[in-house]
Fold this protein.
Amino acid sequence: MNETKRPVIAVELDPPADDDAVFFMDGVQAIRDAGADLITIADCPVGRPRADSCVLAAIIKRQYGIEALPHMTCRDRNLNAMRAALLALSIEGVHHILLVTGDPIPPEERGNVKPVFQVQSRQLARVVREMNETVFHTPFRIFGALNVNAREFARELERAREKEDCGVTGFLTQPILSPEALENLKLAREALRGTILGGVFPIVSYRNACFLNEHVTGIRVSPEIIALYEGKDKDEAGRIALELSLRTARDVLACVDGLYLMTPFRRTGLSAEIVRQVRKEYA
């Protein structure tokens, strides 16, 4: 990417798990004021209930004037419900959507909560593309997920090309936390037509690094990064998180169109500072 071009920055904030949205909305304002272009909102991540991503997206667009990118999972809604949500988003002026198949319901909830999975993300992309052509006055910009940490990345790229054929015009990637992930990001840039926002996840502790590496599907943290955090206190780990995230951002912006910054553990101040620093470097 040409460093003189203003990069796109999308920042993910976790939706509230209760009906107190003050912290979430304060985070939206802080991220907007720091210079982000988009706020992304997950749709009940890991299958646990959170405030509805589409409703939050409408509030963000209306109250804060920043573009919102809600995630829509195929797990919890049938096609009628998804079409209805898309219609409501369009009425509210939200015209970006990230389509994902969705995580499974947690084992302890499977007796009470039934997944839907009427379609998967590629099928849903075709539905949105059809609605773009027949229903919406302003078409949706359709995004998909891209796992740069996939063991069989050639197959992951094949699925991404299939998503493009179904109407996806941009991708948000899993975090770049290893040399292999960065190389896969470069391969993706060569193979895909659409916009790519490379994932940046600020690791905030040694325990956080180990947990991500061992227990979170789709994330791989290199041993070199894990070693940076060993024995560091909270302040030292925070400094490393900022420096490492900015270094990763430079690597990402050298080959793709922008950043997808994931906010860890409600650390909106850290995400806002990363956005400010990136904006200074790429002014």
